[in-house]
Backbone:
């Protein structure tokens, strides 16, 4: 089965680029070469701020996803069993 991703578009690419820039800046400023976190009061504040930003981004994404599902998808009340035929082909030939 194929897997798909949504094309982000111009605005989506800008958001992704900005997010990656913030993430890369965080890594350069607050992580040791071995990947461990630099300690200190400023580091703790930045970690908290980063977590808040990350949570906000994830929550916003969930909101957009929910709006997309509500707008373009509908839930089937009685799911049909797969017949091996595509919709509109008519499995019966009688």
Residues:
């Amino acid at each position: 089965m194929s897997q798909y991703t949504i094309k982000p578009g111009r605005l989506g690419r800008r958001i992704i680029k900005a997010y990656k820039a913030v993430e890369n800046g965080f890594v350069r400023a607050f992580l040791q070469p071995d990947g461990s976190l630099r300690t200190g009061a400023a580091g703790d504040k930045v970690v908290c701020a980063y977590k808040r930003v990350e949570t906000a981004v994830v929550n916003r994404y969930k909101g957009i996803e929910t709006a997309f599902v509500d707008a373009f998808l509908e839930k089937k009340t009685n799911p049909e069993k797969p017949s091996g035929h595509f919709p509109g082909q008519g499995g019966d030939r009688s």
